[in-house]
Inverse folding.
């Protein structure tokens, strides 16, 4: 955990889904998502198992079909504390929300990224490196950084170059997954 990839949230969601199934509790997906929101803002998206546009603190979800993409993900050799970043006095807290249409039209921002880059040199270095190969940005509250590519071959080529300096992996984006 600590990479901004939802590991803790997905673990919580899978636990809720598994317990519901194992003990035949009968909760609907909506009920489980609501319970999951009490555990963490990102838990509902993992309970639902589909790509979604998140608003609010991440618990207001609109299903969304995303184009097929491949991602190069660099995991800098550091752990970023979400609590620290959200508590940072320099964090911009009044930027306008990003809309779904703006997301599809071009580059978007992560308001947490400048704060993390200023505090964690490893993250800043990874973003600068990956920006030479694509539009790079940080995941969630960090520490991972990513860029998307249209083909697996292109993503693999960039990842091979990155391996000289970073922990890196390639992932294929998916729109739907099932747990149980």
């Amino acid at each position: 955990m600590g990479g901004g990839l939802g590991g803790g949230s997905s673990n919580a969601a899978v636990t809720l889904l598994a317990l519901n199934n194992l003990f035949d509790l009968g909760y609907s997906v909506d009920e489980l998502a609501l319970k999951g929101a009490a555990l963490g803002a990102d838990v509902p998206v993992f309970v639902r198992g589909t790509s979604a546009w998140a608003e609010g603190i991440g618990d207001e979800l609109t299903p969304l079909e995303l184009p097929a993409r491949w991602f190069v993900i660099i995991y800098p050799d550091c752990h970023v504390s979400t609590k620290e970043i959200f508590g940072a006095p320099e964090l911009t807290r009044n930027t306008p929300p990003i809309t779904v249409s703006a997301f599809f039209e071009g580059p978007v921002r992560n308001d947490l990224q400048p704060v993390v880059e200023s505090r964690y040199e490893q993250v800043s270095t990874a973003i600068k490196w990956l920006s030479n190969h694509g539009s790079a940005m940080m995941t969630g509250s960090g520490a991972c950084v990513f860029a998307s590519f249209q083909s697996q071959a292109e993503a693999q080529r960039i990842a091979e170059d990155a391996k000289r300096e970073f922990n890196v992996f390639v992932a294929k984006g998916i729109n739907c997954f099932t747990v149980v």
Summary: The mean pLDDT is 93. Residues 67-173 form a domain with the Alpha-Beta Plaits fold (CATH 3.30.70.890).
